[in-house]
Specification:
Blueprint (H helix, E strand, L loop, with lengths): L4 E7 L2 E4 L4 E4 L2 E3 L3 H12 L4 E2 L1 H8 L7 H15 L7 E4 L3 E4 L4 E6 L4 E2 L26 H4 L10 H4 L13 E4 L3 E2 L7 H16 L10 E2 L2 H4 L9 H8 L3 E9 L5 E9 L5 E7 L3 H15 L6 H7 L7 H14 L4 H17 L4 H16 L5 H18 L4 H13 L3 H7 L6 H7 L3 H14 L4 H13 L3 H12 L15 H13 L3 H14 L4 H13 L3 H16 L6 H10 L3 H13 L21 H10 L4
Parallel strand pairs: 4-9, 10-12, 10-13, 11-13
Antiparallel strand pairs: 1-2, 1-8, 2-3, 3-4, 5-7, 6-7, 13-14, 14-15
Helix pairs in contact: 1-2, 1-3, 6-9, 6-11, 11-12, 11-13, 12-13, 13-14, 14-15, 18-19, 19-20, 19-21, 20-21, 21-22, 21-23, 22-23, 23-24, 23-25, 25-26, 26-27
Length: 631
């Protein structure tokens, strides 16, 4: 009996069998997930032309609402199957889409036998460990986190729509919204009380317009350092230098719904100016509270203001609840917290595909995965940029998405864009560091801290900048200040258990040759970061620098085992550890891999002390040139 005719696409040495729905190499099947196969088929059918991500998603997933992460995972499957690490077959065009680079020949014939590769498994793509890979090492966390972007991290809806810093020619009224106290007895509901606090701060901030400062609102980052502190509102108001304090409690009703009780306190004499109780759902209550509070302040509130104060980004209660859970998870600042936040945001988008704020939030979590060494920067930035663009397509007024798109540009070494806009660009601080102007950035941060001295993220950013400026004693003092800003364990606001601050201290002590102190700080970072590869690698690098090679080797073995199991380890971290071991050839092998992945921290080559062991090598200047940095 004659075998049925079938169609195939050939691009040597591969064959895409359209009849059987499989990919082969020299007759051996390469396994792909169904959706990965469909993505590959669509790209092959459109070989030679740029195909946008939206086009692929709409063609492969049809009416199903998915995030770009689904597409990126499919591309990882495909590239893993093709061994296309260098994008010779499928090329990514940043922020635009993909091009299938090979010529495809369509053929018809009879069905051929397929040989399945023994032990072939489909796994998420991870960078090849390579012949010399042993471990990853973290220098100080990237300047992008330390300067502007993490202003968004700690629940910064207050900064979410921020305007450029303005010269205030008069003293406007001022207010601090303290964290709403969860008095329900159920700690699992903190995400609601924190969420309504964030929303009120954001709404009140909307009263300010460019060139028209009407109300000074203390940022959420600063306000939240008082969470859990038993202080009188007037005392906090005097410390913050504001006229008015808003306090609130969230209580539980017999039907398990929440009720919010709020009151305004006059800081000058401690008297209660106004109080009210709201028994409506948080979606309604947060808008009502913001509107009512604004009307109690010495402001003229117009129709446009009311529109801004009562604006909702979704009408769907379930989607908003998932968004709030995602925010709470992201602010934990651990690998699991960031990963969990993405899951919540994806579900929120599934419930409400037009929820622009959820697209911004998932973009930020994707960016944080790159910034936290959980994902390659080239993938993280691509996912983040696409999510921000979707948010803007849904809501052109979502300023935070536009600002973070600029940050992604700087993450991708687009120095010209940051230089052109100056300090109003979220990536300007990273640009100054990249240009070797750390002292200039430190001066900018000093001025900002004069205005908002308790802002934990600004304080953290100053730690990293002082390290880049090689002002090590100042950096130590700044780190100690930052660790003591909040009352207890709080990674989101850089409290005493913040692994990020402890990693900076470890790097500073290493540069000062204080290896015992450096090791102790790195060990603390390991403990508080869920045993992350970043913190472990930093500890290994300090051991290597201190001459304790046996201890370093033990950690290298652990890291190598974890990398073999698929955990991501940035090539730059691996390059650092070989640099500290004095093996420049292997270091530059991994630096080139870091370049291929567009590792953001390569932008710090001119300033960061962590690159010092490699500066005398001629290959270092060449790499700086490729990254677009001045000699």
């Amino acid at each position: 009996m004659q075998k049925p005719e079938h169609r195939v696409y050939r691009f040597d040495p591969f064959t895409l069998d359209l009849t059987r729905g499989c990919l082969l190499r020299d007759g051996t099947e390469l396994k792909l997930r169904p959706k990965s196969y469909e993505v590959f088929k669509y790209l092959a059918e459109n070989s030679g032309r740029l195909v946008s991500k939206d086009e692929i998603i709409s063609s492969v997933w049809l009416e199903t609402a998915v995030t770009d992460d689904s597409l990126v995972q499919c591309l990882k499957d495909i590239r893993h199957a093709l061994a296309d690490d260098h994008q010779q077959i499928i090329r990514t065009v940043p922020r635009r889409g993909y091009i299938f680079e090979k010529d495809v020949i369509e053929e018809f014939g009879t069905v051929l036998p397929i040989e399945t590769a023994a032990g072939d498994e489909i796994v998420d793509e991870a960078p090849s460990a390579g012949p010399h890979a042993k471990a990853a090492m973290s220098g100080r966390r990237r300047a992008l986190i330390s300067v502007a972007a993490l202003v968004l991290l700690a629940g910064t809806a207050a900064f979410m729509f921020r305007k450029p810093v303005l010269a205030w020619f008069f003293k406007p009224p001022s207010i601090a919204v303290l964290p709403v106290i969860n008095a329900t007895g159920d700690g699992g509901l903190d995400y609601i009380s924190d969420g309504i606090t964030e929303s009120i701060i954001t709404s009140l901030t909307q009263l300010n317009e460019k060139g028209r400062p009407r109300l000074r609102v203390i940022s959420q980052n600063t306000a939240f350092i008082f969470k859990g502190k038993e202080l009188e509102p007037r005392s906090i108001g005097l410390q913050l230098g504001v006229d008015t304090i808003l306090t609130g409690k969230m209580l539980r009703q017999p039907d398990d719904s929440q009720v919010f009780k709020v009151e305004l306190v006059n800081v000058s004499d401690g008297s209660i100016m106004w109080l009210k109780q709201y028994a409506s759902h948080i979606l309604i209550a947060q808008n009502e509270i913001a509107k009512d509070v604004a009307e109690q302040l010495p402001l003229t509130i117009g129709a446009h203001d009311i529109e801004n104060l009562t604006r909702r980004y979704t009408q769907n209660a379930e989607a908003y609840d998932l968004y709030l859970k995602g925010r709470a998870a992201c602010l934990v600042q651990t690998p699991s917290g960031i990963a969990n936040s993405i899951g919540y945001y994806q579900r929120a988008i599934e419930v409400d595909p037009n929820f622009a704020l959820a697209y911004w939030a998932i973009g930020f979590s994707f960016w944080m995965e790159g910034a936290s060494d959980m994902r390659a920067d080239i993938d993280a930035n691509e996912l983040a940029a696409s999510s921000y663009q979707r948010a803007l397509n849904l809501d052109a007024n979502l300023t935070v998405a536009a600002e973070m798109l600029k940050m992604v540009q700087t993450s991708s070494w687009n120095w010209e864009a940051a230089a052109k806009e100056g300090p109003t660009n979220f990536g300007y601080g990273a640009y100054l560091i990249a240009m070797g102007r750390a002292e200039e950035q430190a001066a900018i941060e000093d001025r900002r801290l004069t205005v908002d001295p308790l802002h934990p993220v600004l304080n953290y950013g100053h730690c990293t900048t002082l390290f880049q400026a090689r002002r090590y004693d100042d950096a130590i003092a700044q780190c100690q200040k930052t660790l003591n800003l909040v009352p207890g364990p709080n990674r989101a606001y850089f409290g005493p258990e913040s692994p990020a601050v402890h990693r900076i201290l470890a790097n500073v002590y290493t540069q000062k040759g204080m290896f015992a102190e450096a090791i102790a700080e790195a060990q603390t970072a390991v403990t508080t970061s869920e045993n992350s590869t970043v913190s472990l690698a930093l500890l290994a690098s300090i051991y290597a620098r201190a001459g304790q090679t046996n201890e370093a080797g033990k950690i290298i073995d652990i890291l190598e085992e974890r990398m073999d199991k698929g955990e991501y380890a940035p090539p730059l971290n691996i390059a650092f550890i070989f640099a500290n071991l004095g093996d420049n050839d292997k270091a530059f092998y991994w630096l080139n891999r870091a370049f291929d992945e567009r590792e953001s921290r390569l932008g710090n080559m001119k300033s960061s002390p962590n690159f010092d062991p490699l500066r005398s090598d001629p290959r270092f200047a060449e790499l700086m040139k490729r990254v677009g940095l001045p000699a």
